[in-house]
Amino acid sequence: MDTYTTTIAVASIVTSGITISIGVIGPALSEGRSVATALSSLAQQPDASTTITRTLFVGLAMIESLAIYCFVVSMILIFANPFWNHAIA
Amino acid sequence: MDTYTTTIAVASIVTSGITISIGVIGPALSEGRSVATALSSLAQQPDASTTITRTLFVGLAMIESLAIYCFVVSMILIFANPFWNHAIA
Amino acid sequence: MDTYTTTIAVASIVTSGITISIGVIGPALSEGRSVATALSSLAQQPDASTTITRTLFVGLAMIESLAIYCFVVSMILIFANPFWNHAIA
Amino acid sequence: MDTYTTTIAVASIVTSGITISIGVIGPALSEGRSVATALSSLAQQPDASTTITRTLFVGLAMIESLAIYCFVVSMILIFANPFWNHAIA
Amino acid sequence: MDTYTTTIAVASIVTSGITISIGVIGPALSEGRSVATALSSLAQQPDASTTITRTLFVGLAMIESLAIYCFVVSMILIFANPFWNHAIA
Amino acid sequence: MDTYTTTIAVASIVTSGITISIGVIGPALSEGRSVATALSSLAQQPDASTTITRTLFVGLAMIESLAIYCFVVSMILIFANPFWNHAIA
Amino acid sequence: MDTYTTTIAVASIVTSGITISIGVIGPALSEGRSVATALSSLAQQPDASTTITRTLFVGLAMIESLAIYCFVVSMILIFANPFWNHAIA
Amino acid sequence: MDTYTTTIAVASIVTSGITISIGVIGPALSEGRSVATALSSLAQQPDASTTITRTLFVGLAMIESLAIYCFVVSMILIFANPFWNHAIA
Amino acid sequence: MDTYTTTIAVASIVTSGITISIGVIGPALSEGRSVATALSSLAQQPDASTTITRTLFVGLAMIESLAIYCFVVSMILIFANPFWNHAIA
Amino acid sequence: MDTYTTTIAVASIVTSGITISIGVIGPALSEGRSVATALSSLAQQPDASTTITRTLFVGLAMIESLAIYCFVVSMILIFANPFWNHAIA
Amino acid sequence: MDTYTTTIAVASIVTSGITISIGVIGPALSEGRSVATALSSLAQQPDASTTITRTLFVGLAMIESLAIYCFVVSMILIFANPFWNHAIA
Amino acid sequence: MDTYTTTIAVASIVTSGITISIGVIGPALSEGRSVATALSSLAQQPDASTTITRTLFVGLAMIESLAIYCFVVSMILIFANPFWNHAIA
Amino acid sequence: MDTYTTTIAVASIVTSGITISIGVIGPALSEGRSVATALSSLAQQPDASTTITRTLFVGLAMIESLAIYCFVVSMILIFANPFWNHAIA
Amino acid sequence: MDTYTTTIAVASIVTSGITISIGVIGPALSEGRSVATALSSLAQQPDASTTITRTLFVGLAMIESLAIYCFVVSMILIFANPFWNHAIA
């Protein structure tokens, strides 16, 4: 190890953690809001449960994809980091 | 590796993570709000489900595009960074 | 590479990421609000769907343009940066 | 390049990005609010759509002008920066 | 260029950008609020559209003047900066 | 130029920009709130438009005076700064 | 000029700007709230316009006095600063 | 002037400005709230205007006293500062 | 004056200002809330004005005592500071 | 005085001020809320004034005790500080 | 006194003050909320005063215990600090 | 004492205080909310007091356990700190 | 002890405290919200107490698990820290 | 141990704690919101308990997965850190 690789390693570690922890805040709040609204809609209009459930799942998939973006970047920085690969090469 | 390339690598790593993690907050909250309103609208007016669903999908696509901008910048900084390419050239 | 070009490269990288990630927060929230209001308006007054949809699309275009400003500045800083071009010239 | 021109270039890069990204937050939220209110007003009073649409467009133009101020300053700092011109002269 | 002029140039660049970007937040939100209220007032009382529109325009002009103050200071710092003129004299 | 005058110039530039940009936030929000309330009051009680308009203008003048205080201090710091005059004397 | 007088000058410049810009936020918001409530009260009870207007003006005077305190301190720091007078004596 | 007196002068200048500018935020908001509630109470119950006005003035006096505390400390730090008097003695 | 007494003087000056300015925020907001509620209660139930006024004054006294604590600490730090007395002894 | 006692004195001064100023924010807001609710309860149910007043006073005593904790710690740090006593021993 | 004991003393002083001042914010707000709700409940349902008062006191005791935890830690750090005892041993 | 043990002692002191003071904010607010809701529920439905009280106590126990976690960590850091034991061994 | 083990010990101490204190904020607020809603639901629909209580306990268990994750990480950092074990090996 | 491995260890420790503690805030608030809405929906529409419970569990699983992402990254950084493995190899 030398100073250069250590600096890159530290930056990768810190960034990967920050990325996923900040990145799930928005999607988490949105999924909670969607699920909560779905539940109160179901209580208000039980007959429309099919349409509500389907729209809920499509929406959750869209929102989850945003968290996946962050998770992918976080994983890339830990396991497939091109800068780290160049440094230890 | 030398100081110059290390500095650029660190800046690229940190920025790519920050960009996507902050960039999904707004779109995530907006998609959650849209989905939640769609669900309560469906419960209130089941007959308009076709119009509601179509408008919801168009809106989600518009909002998702904003997160895509951030993801694209994040990917460019990791895999197609012109400054890094110039540095290691 | 020398200290001067490295500094400009780092500033460009960091600024391009920050610009787009902060710049989409406002437009994203606004588009979400517009879409959500459109959905509840459609549920409330299905007969006015033509006017509502048209106004929604004009509004989304106006709001999207604000995010485009940030994306343009971010792309300029990465791919057409006059300071960088001067530095490596 | 020397220290003086590098410092000015870095300040210009960072400021141009910050200016446009922070500067669109307020206009974006305001346009979203205006569009959302227009949509709910249209649903509530479809007969007044002409007046509502005209007032909306005048208002959006006023608000967009505030974002244009920031975009103009950002473009000046990148492409017509008098301090940079003096420095490289 | 020397250290003194560079310092003044950097301060002018950064301050001009910050001034206009922060300075439009308040006016933007206020104009959005005014326009939104005007729209809902028009939907509620279409007969008073003349009075409402006139009051709206007077109010927008007052609020826009606050953003103009910031734009003027920002332009002075870039193009008519007395400290810069003294420095390069 | 020497270190002392440069320091005073930088402080004056930065402070003048910060003063006006922060100083318009409060007045802007207040004017927006006043105008918005005036508009909804006009829609609710069109017969009282004379009293409402007069009170609105008096109130806007009071609030605008607060922004003028900040603009005056900002202009003094740029064009009639006693500390700068003493420094360059 | 020497280091001591420069330091005092810089502190006076920065403090005078910060004092007035932060000091008007509270009074501005309060005056806006008072004016807005007066307008809606006038719309609701036009017969009490004399009492409402008089109470409004007394209240605005009390609130304006708080902003005047800040303006006085800001002016003292620029034009009648005892520490500066001692320093240049 | 020497380093010690300069340091005390700078601390006094900065603290006096910060004290009054932060110290008026709370009282300003409270007075605005009190005046606004008084106005809507007057519109709602014009017959009780004597009691309302008297209670309002007592309350404003209590709240204004809190701002006076801050103004007194600010004036003491500028014109009757025991530490400064000891330093220049 | 020496370094030690100067440091204690600066700490005392800054702390006394901060203490009173931050310390009045809470009591000010609370007194404003109490006065506002008293006013609307008087408008709603004029017959209970004796009980309301008495309870209001007791409550204001309790809340004012919290601000007095901060004022006392602030005055002790300026005029009866045991650490300063020890330092100049 | 030496460096050690000065450092402890400065820490005691700053902490005592911060402790009481931050420590009264919560109790102040709570007492204001309690008093405000008591006033509106009295206006709503004048017959229960005995129970309401008694419960209010018990509650205020509990909340005031929290501020007393902070005041006690602040006074201990100024007048009965064991670390300071050890330092000057 | 030496550097080590001074550092531990300063850390203990600052931490004890911060702990109690931040630690009472949450319990204070909660007690205020509980007392306020109890008062409005008493006004709404005077017959249930026994149950309400008893539940209130149990709740206040639970919440007060949280503030006691902070007070205990604060007192331990001042009067029974094991690290300080080890340092001066 | 040497530098290493002093550093660990300082970190333990500061962390133990921060942990408990920040850690009680959430539980305190939650217990206050639970108690307040219980009180208003009792006033609304006195007949269900048994079920409400029992559910309240179970809920308070769950929430209190979260504060206990923080208190335990705080106590471990003061009285059973393995890093400190290793350092003074 | 040497510099390396001390640094790791300090990082472990600070992180373990921060982790649990920040980590309980979200779960605490959520449990408080759940318990409060359960109480008001019980008051509104006493007949559904079985279903409500069961759903509440399942929900509290899910939320508590999130706090347990933080507690586990905190305990690992204090008592089973692999980095510390490697350092003192 | 040397400087490089120590730096990586410290970064891993701090990041793992921050990641899980910040990462549970969003999911915790969302699960609390979902559970609370489920409870009030059950009280409002007991007949739909099957659909509500099933939708609640699916939603909680989606939200919990976001917290799991953070927990996984935190565990990887402690027990399967590729940068640490490379450093101690």
The number of helices of chain A is 4
**How many strand units of chain A?**
0
Strand content of chain A: under 5%
| The CATH homologous superfamily of chain A | F1F0 ATP synthase subunit C
Shape of chain A: rod-shaped
What composes the largest sheet of chain A?
A: none
Name of the top-level CATH class of chain A: Mainly Alpha
C-alpha Rg of chain A (nearest Å):
20 Å
Q: Oligomeric form of this entry?
A: homo-oligomer of 14 chains
Order of helices and strands of chain A: HHHH
Biggest interchain interface, per-side counts: I-J, 58 and 48 residues
Low-pLDDT residue intervals, each spanning 5 or more residues of chain A = none
Separation of termini of chain A? 12 Å
CATH topology of chain A: F1FO ATP Synthase
Helicity level of chain A: over 70%
What is the residue-mean pLDDT of chain A, rounded to a whole number?
94
Provide the structure class of chain A: mainly alpha
Please indicate the count of domains of chain A. Answer: 1
List the helices and strands and how they pair.
The structure is a homo-oligomer of 14 chains of 89-residue chains.
Chain A: H1 3-23, H2 25-44, H3 49-79, H4 82-88
Helix pairs in contact in A: 1-3, 1-4, 2-3
Protein name (chains A, B, C, D, E, F, G, H, I, J, K, L, M, N): F0F1 ATP synthase subunit C
Membrane topology (chains A, B, C, D, E, F, G, H, I, J, K, L, M, N): Multi-pass membrane protein
Domain V-ATPase proteolipid subunit C-like (chains A, B, C, D, E, F, G, H, I, J, K, L, M, N): 16-77
Summarize the entry for a quick read.
14 copies of one chain form a homo-oligomer. Chain A has 89 residues and is mainly α.
